[in-house]
Amino acid sequence: MTQADLDALLNAVIPLAQQMLAKYGEFYPLGAAMNAAGEVGLVGCMPQSERPEMQEVIDLLLAELKAEAARHEIRASVLCFRGNAIPPGQSEKMDAICAHLEHESGDCLAAFLPYRKEISGEVTYGDLFGGRLKPQIFVNGAAG
Questions:
Q1: What three-state secondary structure class fits 54?
Q2: b/e for 76-95, b at 16 or more Cβ within 10 A?
Q3: Rounded to an integer, what distance in angstroms lies between the CA atom of residue 38 and that of residue 18?
Q4: Is the dihedral of CA 14, 20, 33, 102 positive or negative?
Q5: What is the pLDDT of residue 50?
Q6: pLDDT by residue (tens digit) across 18-45?
Q7: Whole-angstrom Cα distance, residue 11 to residue 53?
Q8: Strand partners for 114
Q9: How many C-beta neighbours within 10 Å does residue 30 have?
Q10: How do 123-125 and 108-117 pair as beta strands?
Q11: Which of 56, 54, 30 has its CA nearest to residue 44?
Q12: Nearest alpha carbon to residue 130 among 105, 113, 107
């Protein structure tokens, strides 16, 4: 169940990030959560400025996801943002769609989808890879 929940969240945010990259060449951080019934929905936040810094949006989404977890409203979450990662077998960082996934069970994973913006404007993608993370959402008794 845990892996299926995390896959559903990843499948909710990665295509949206890809659409924004294709259309605008960038994207603002995204958050999504899965409720107890297994329904996935995007999580919103209200930055103070019209063009907020990426970290401001990440901090607001993180705070909202933590609050929802503490109220036991969600069983899994994802925070998706632009970052850098070194793909397996390579030595240089690449731009990447980064997704931090957490589940109330304690599973906490990072997924990275490396990409390159071509001169033509097209975005090409590498292979998805990941690893383990320290929980940030389901902490301090927030796990259900």
A1: helix
A2: bbbbbbbbebebeeeeeebb
A3: 24
A4: positive
A5: 75
A6: 999 999 888 889 999 999 999 999 997 7
A7: 25
A8: 96
A9: 22
A10: antiparallel
A11: 30
A12: 113
CA atoms within 13 A on the CB side of 7: 4
Alpha-carbon 62 to chain mean position: 10
pTM of the model: 0.89
Q: Could you give the count of Cα atoms lying within 13 Å of 42 in the half-sphere of its Cβ? A: 11
Q: How would you label 50-65 residue by residue, b for 16+ Cβ within 10 Å and e otherwise?
A: eebeeeebbebbbebb
CA-based radius of gyration for the chain: 15
Do 110 and 88 meet the contact criterion of CB atoms below 8 Å apart?
A: no
For 51, residues 6+ apart whose C-beta sits below 8 A from its C-beta are none
Which range is least confidently modeled, 44-53, 80-89, 106-115? 44-53
| Residue that the structure tokens 């995007």 belong to | 42
What is the C-alpha to C-alpha distance for residues 21 and 27, in angstroms, rounded to an integer? 6
**Cβ–Cβ < 8 Å for 21, 27:** yes
Here the tokens at position 100 are: 């931090």
- Residue type present at position 125: Y
